[in-house]
Specification:
The complex is a heterodimer of chains A (about 140) and B (about 425).
Chain A lengths: L7 E3 L1 E4 L3 E7 L10 E2 L4 E2 L15 E4 L8 H11 L5 E4 L4 H14 L5 E3 L2 H5 L6 E4 L4 E6 L2
Parallel strand pairs in A: 3-6, 6-7, 7-8
Antiparallel strand pairs in A: 1-10, 2-8, 3-9, 4-5, 9-10
Chain B lengths: L6 H7 L5 H17 L4 E3 L3 E3 L7 H12 L8 E3 L16 H16 L24 E2 L2 H11 L10 H8 L1 E3 L13 E5 L4 H4 L4 H13 L4 E4 L7 H14 L6 E2 L9 H4 L7 E5 L1 H10 L10 E9 L1 H13 L7 E6 L1 H10 L1 H7 L2 E5 L15 E4 L2 H10 L3 E4 L2 H10 L6 H4 L9
Classes of the chains: A alpha/beta (about 140), B alpha/beta (about 425).
Chain lengths: ~140, ~425
């Protein structure tokens, strides 16, 4: 594991920006509408296996979003309230999450960058790592769990 | 892939048409990159879902646009808001939230959107013609426009819907392009009796089943009667867009891009074939309910919003079996249908029966239902899907007749003749 420190993974930028934090990997897609409480940043979808975890300040790694297009609104609201993830990394491009971040960038000058990582690279992200996402779409592993 | 912008696009991006259009164009070009679109295309109408309140940030966004001089550039209609503006007393939530929700609705009107406040713009306003490029939000309106009208929209939602309306542009990708509208999964109806295919209640069940199986892939249904009604297709699409992310379906011999199965698949083979048997239909019907048949506190109809044709089927049932006063009976509809009800004297008959007719909004997006616990009964696949999470009540799904007869006795009434054909898995 120790050789992962300093590894740089190159992703596709959907919404550019800086973000740094501890990685939280979701094992299943999450619909933010009905799934995330913007007041706290807590995952509240009781059918999601990671219900109860908090996304605030984390590098949120998830396969994709799910469900309602109102998820963009929930992400924007989380950014306004300061409970949003510091960056979002997905395995598939998710227009609804990207839109929430793009609007947040317009409205609040801060937004989690949204980056897509291809299969093998996506698989290298594990819970507990510290990571940094750069505006060019690089995901840098800073520290092992 | 570099995004090609026209000189008009570039002018909007550079602020020629003011800060609101500039912001809208910035968001659209970011999203074009997300969709991998090589350029933008013209849209001729928009339908906006952003007028439903989700929190202060959505209101700040709308106010930023209004302050930036926002005016829609193409005919644009509004989806439901959180308040019935004709009957604001129906709103049971926090008054401060109600006030902000109303301010949001006003902001979108100020941008020049038509305040039809309905999830069925296709039954309340001018319809886009076959092949028209449009930017619509609201999952059931999207699936109806694509599937039944043959217009072309992606699954748009909050924010990007108004960006398209303010610029008249959308990313050229996904369902805007003919090649991406080809069917992927074939659903074959097997051993389902003709009598069931004539029943309205079959369509939300079929939609719910297909949505859950298809996810984001495009279903093609073979075996529906050629005279399947518009309201049946509306119920099918709304349910499919609730259990899955279906934005387009084809029904062979029924919908305009599917004169034949071969045409629906654009001469390719289906990726997968699913047989829909009576057993599968029964299973899906049962999955639409979260409680066993027992007492009910609420009946809610009208998701998508009830049409005049649906009211014409409701009224005789109400006359023969008026609801009990203890059962809250709510029907959600749009203002055009409300006007029709008033003209015909139907509204008065409904009110005399104790039925609450709600416009501009609906029971799963805003607090209207008074009951805090218990069971809500509905004939809508979409209400059945969202009631437990959004209202916190249990739900029982049934036909329109079952809903009315159940309201009359305060507990679930079942139409045994209707379900007989599903009683056994054994083909007859």
């Amino acid at each position: 594991m120790s050789q992962d420190k300093g590894v740089v993974l190159n992703g596709r930028v959907l919404v550019p920006g800086h973000g740094e934090g501890q990685i939280l990997v979701l094992v299943e897609p999450l619909s933010l509408w009905g799934g995330l409480e913007p007041e706290s940043g807590e995952i509240i979808d009781r059918r999601h296996p990671q219900s109860g975890q908090n996304v605030n300040g984390r590098v949120l790694v998830l396969p994709a979003g799910r469900g309602s297009s109102s998820a963009s609104s929930i992400l924007l609201e989380a950014v306004r309230l300061g409970t949003a993830p510091s960056a979002i990394v997905t395995a598939e491009a998710d227009p609804i999450l990207a839109l929430g971040a793009a609007v947040a960038r317009e409205m609040y000058d801060k937004a989690p960058p949204v980056v897509v990582l291809a299969g093998e690279d996506y698989g290298r992200l594990q819970n507990g790592y510290m990571a940094r996402v750069t505006p060019e779409g690089r995901v840098v592993l800073l520290q092992n769990p | 892939m570099a995004l090609q912008l026209t000189s008009r696009d570039k002018a909007m991006l550079n602020g020629r048409d003011g800060p609101a259009v500039q912001m809208a164009m910035r968001i659209l070009t970011t999203m074009a990159g997300v969709y991998g679109a090589p350029h933008l295309l013209d849209v001729e109408s928009a339908h906006i879902d952003g007028c439903l309140y989700h929190g202060p940030s959505g209101l700040e966004f709308a106010h930023r646009l209004v302050e930036g001089g926002a005016r829609v550039r193409v005919p644009t209609t509004l989806n439901v808001g959180a308040v019935d503006l004709l009957h604001p007393e129906h709103f049971q939530g926090d008054p401060e939230v109600g006030r902000r929700a109303q301010a949001l609705m006003e902001a979108y009107q100020q941008m020049g959107c038509l305040p039809i406040w309905t999830c069925t713009p296709y039954q309340a306003s001018q319809r886009p013609p076959f092949g028209a490029q449009i930017a619509w939000a609201e999952s059931n309106a999207i699936v109806f426009a694509n599937s039944v009208l043959g217009a072309r929209t992606n699954r748009y939602g909050d924010f990007i819907d108004i960006c398209a309306a303010l610029t008249g542009r959308a990313p050229a990708s996904g369902l805007h392009l003919r090649e991406n509208r080809r069917g992927q999964i074939l659903y074959r109806l097997v051993d389902l009796p003709d009598t069931l295919l004539r029943e309205d209640v079959f369509y939300p069940i079929l939609g719910y089943l297909i949505g859950a199986h298809s996810g984001t892939r495009i279903p093609v249904i073979e075996g529906l009667p050629p005279d399947t009604t518009e309201d049946q297709l509306k119920a099918l699409g709304a349910a499919a867009a609730s259990s899955g992310a279906v934005a387009l379906f084809h029904a062979v011999g029924v919908t305009p891009e599917a004169p034949t199965a071969d045409a629906a698949f654009q001469r390719r083979a289906p990726e997968k074939i699913v047989e829909i048997s009576p057993g599968l239909v029964r299973q899906t019907r049962d999955r639409l309910s979260t409680a066993p048949d027992g007492t009910i506190q609420v009946v809610a109809l009208g998701s998508p919003h009830f049409s005049p044709a649906e009211f014409s089927r409701l009224l005789p049932l109400i006359d023969s079996h008026p609801p009990r006063r203890e059962v809250e009976f709510i029907v959600c509809t749009n203002r055009l249908a409300l006007g029709y009800l008033e003209q015909r004297g139907w509204l008065q008959r409904l009110r005399e029966a104790g039925i609450k007719v709600v416009v501009d909004t609906c029971v799963v997006v805003t607090p209207i239902v008074s009951a805090r616990t218990g069971t809500l009964m509905t004939n809508s696949g979409k209400f059945a899907h969202y009631t437990p999470g959004n209202i916190g009540l249990d739900v029982v799904f049934g036909s329109l007749k079952e809903c009315v007869r159940s309201a009359a006795q305060g507990r679930v009434w079942r139409d045994t003749a209707l379900w007989q054909s599903l009683a056994s898995d054994e083909p007859g």
